[in-house]
Structure formats: structure tokens, C-alpha cells
Amino acid sequence: MTQNAFHAPPSPVQSPSFQRLAWMLLLASWGCALGTLALSLARWAAIGHADGWGAWMPVGLVPAQAQLVGLTPPQSMETQWRWVGVLLECIPAAAMFYTVLCVHRICRAFLAGEVFGSAVVRGFRGVGWGFLAMFVTSLLYQMGVTALLSWLASGQNGGLIALGVGSFEVSTLVVGLMMLLLAHVLAEGSRLQAEADAFV
Asked: What is d(CA 25, CA 56) in angstroms, rounded to the nearest whole number?
């Protein structure tokens, strides 16, 4: 029997296809996060410029929550209220970027050949909590943005607060719980692997 017979088969995490998927997930998560942030900030630069470049602002730049309750963007907006809008965007953006950082940690561990390590477990647990935070911050953002736009549209004489749970909120809640469950499974796998390594 040759010595090669005792060599362990290559791990699937070392395969080029797995490595490509990890890189694709890493790049896609950062690309989506940065693109979403840019779009969110652009809407507050465009709203209130009816005679300028904001006149051709796509409907998608108007917050979806404002569209659902029939709010129209104010014809003009003072700079301080734009900054308030930017701060509102930072609420869900913080949860989103925390989640992306956890995905980054997972992908880097996968690229290093680590599947059941502590970094992966912490990463999936962080993704779970990140999605749950996105669920909560989405609700806060809904209330804040509808209150701000309706107050400005009424000439600062009144406003309304809209709150709803749509497909995005349901998805983030379900995915967050699934990621927390997966983190428990990976933690158990890490424990069993440690026991097997100690036995050998």
C-alpha cells in the first residue's frame, strides 16, 4: 500500500467552486450594502428640488413607506431637514452594515478553509442578530420617515405616523431566526469536531 493511500481526500471547502461562491457572496453583500446606502442618501439630496435635477427623480427614490400612505415629497426642503432624513437612513443602514460585516467574517473563514470554527459560529450568530436588528430598525425607519415627510408636506402644521409589516420585514425576521438556529447547529458541529480531534 502506497503512502498516498493514507492521505485524506481534499476538503470540499478547498474546491475552486466553493472558493468562487465565497468570493461572490463577499462581493455581492458589500456591493448591495454600498449601493443601497448610496440610493438612500441620494433621495434626500433629490427630494425638494422640483425645479432642478430632482425633477426627474425616479419614483424608486421616494421612500416606499411614503408612497404606501399616499405622501408626496415636499416641493422644497431646508438643509437641516435633509440631514434629519440622512440620520433616519442611518438607522437601518447601521443594522445592514453590521450584518454585512458578519457575512464578511464568515466568507473570510470559508476562504481560509474553516467551516466549523468559532469565527464561523460567531459570524452566523451575528448575521442572525443583524437580520433581527434590520427588522426592528425597519419599523423605526417607517415611523420616522412618514412622520418627517407628512409634517413637511403639511407645512409643519401636522403629520402622521405609518407603520406596517411587509414582505421585507417578514423575510428579515424569518431569516434572522434561521441564522440563529444555524449558528447553534454549527456550534454543535464545532464541538463534535473538537471531540473527534481530541480522540484521534
From this structure: 33
CB-hemisphere CA count at 13 Å for 87? 8
Choose among 81, 32, 88, 64: nearest CA to 162: 64
Q: Are 151 and 158 in contact (CB under 8 A)?
A: yes
For residues 7-33, give the mean pLDDT.
Answer: 77
State the virtual CA torsion across 50, 53, 55, 58 in degrees, nearest 10: -130
Instruction: Please tell me the distance from the alpha carbon of residue 126 to that of residue 124, in angstroms, as a whole number.
Output: 5
If we measure between CA atoms, which residue out of 86, 77, 11 comes closest to residue 49? Answer: 77
Burial 76-90 (b: 16+ CB within 10 A, else e): ebeeebbebbeebbe
Q: How confident is the model at residue 54 (pLDDT cuts 50, 70, 90)?
A: very low
DSSP classification of residue 37? H
Give the separation between CA 29 and CA 103, rounded to whole angstroms. Answer: 8
CA distances from 40 to 88, 112, 152 (A): 10, 34, 19
Is pTM, for the whole model, over 0.90? no
Instruction: Cell 466553493: give the residue.
Output: 18
DSSP 128-184: HHHHHHHHHHHHHHHHHHHHHHHHHHTTSS---------HHHHHHHHHHHHHHHHHH
State the pLDDT at residue 68: 65
